[in-house]
Amino acid sequence: MSEPPSQVSWANVRDEISRRIKKQQFDTWFRRVEAREVSSSRLDLEVPNEFIREWLQKYYLDTIRKAAEDVMRSRPQVTLRLPEGASATASDASASSSASTAHPSSVPALPVPASPVRTDPMRSGAEARLPLNPSYTFDHFVVGPSNRLAHAAALAVAEAPAQAYNPLFLHGAVGLGKTHLLQAICHHMLARAPRTDILYLSCETFVNSFIGALKSGSLDAFRRRHRTVGVLLVDDIHFLANKESTQEEFFHTFNELFDANRQIILSSDSSPMDIPTIEDRLVSRFKWGLVARIDKPNLETRVAILKQKAELRGSEIPDEVLAFVAKAVDTNIRELEGAVTKLIGSATLTARRINLALAREIFSDLLIEKRRHITIEDIQGAITARYSVKLSDLQSKRRSKSVTLPRQVCMFLARSLTDYSLEEIGGYFGGRDHTTVMYACDQIGGRVKRDAEFARMVEETTVQLRSGSRG
Ligand code: ADP
Ligand code: MG
After folding, report:
1. Which CATH number applies to 299-371: 1.20.1530.20, 1.10.8.60, 3.40.50.720, 3.40.80.10?
2. What are phi and psi of 249, to 5 degrees?
């Protein structure tokens, strides 16, 4: 093709980009990118929101440059910017739809300063106006035993707002996917019904807008905004702790929405009962619908997540490296993502392939700090020796006291020393279900508190397992 460069449009560059990266990546990051100015010296692109802009800037600038170079046979300067008045006009992102119709003459010569994406969207229901991360979708959420219930509940609510569970309360430690699931619900609802009246905000935003409204005497507007939405999602609701007047306000917001049969979805770093200094009447409301906990992912899920995150970045990481990193990083999913970034970054920077040697170099300090990996077999070994019971007894259905106690101690230790889920632990003891394991943990936890002798035994076993002195 010997088209003169001036005739080359963004559509050509886009096609070239789509050939260079995976379809899923392309759909996620480039679908809504449009051209503002295309010439041999500049390629001005408009992206729908700040999040996408940062992401493209960080991970895809090179891809864009190279694709442009190839197609245009020149080296245009690539600029990424937000729609003019991104926070003021609703239909901006959808109004100009064809990627190839850039109107250079109507574009000011200097790039418009990027306006921040609103964090407190007005209730237009348009996806472009909610501060959503485009990759936080159900498609991109890896499901495992640790988050299966939360995922299923989120999907059910997204499919049938105010019919399945109301409210839906998701809780779990930091970095385990609460925000991802909340935003996945938004994406899903908007895909099904683009005009859904969704208000998604962090609790901090709720608190700050409330205080702002109090100060400026615009409480009526605040209430109109929050109490009439179709769907309300508040992320990190534990932020309400210690904020009495905002709790009061949220209580009324909750009641009005609930009475009007509007879906409410909340996330928190602890269960409703465990949020400190939150009023009982709120706690009880949070428990009205479904409370689902997200646990730390097990090894298998961590591998699946690493794999998916690498694919999203257009990298393939060999299985042995995935397994290695998943073992080294077992805190939360945000850290797993960080590990992928580090791996890909170092490989690119040093022009090396991603392999075990590279992973070992990068994560060596992590491994030294990391305590020995304890397995359930280790625990069973330690306990059968201490109590003189047989492994087959621990795995049997027998319920005599001489077997039940050591079995429960095993379950308790497995819960505190490994990251197996309740279901998985039950599986190691004759296929018992998660409620049995939970009961065992409660029993043993209680006895540890009451019985100093017993507590010492548990502590000793723990130290022994941690130091790996059983082989
Ligand atoms: P939280 O809100 O619980 O602190 P986030 O939702 O922000 O956690 O998740 C942290 C990061 O981990 C995000 O980038 C998110 O996409 C990712 N993540 C969490 N859970 C999953 C999952 N099950 N599958 C894929 N990515 C996940
Ligand atoms: Mg979060």
Report:
1. 1.10.8.60
2. -65, -45
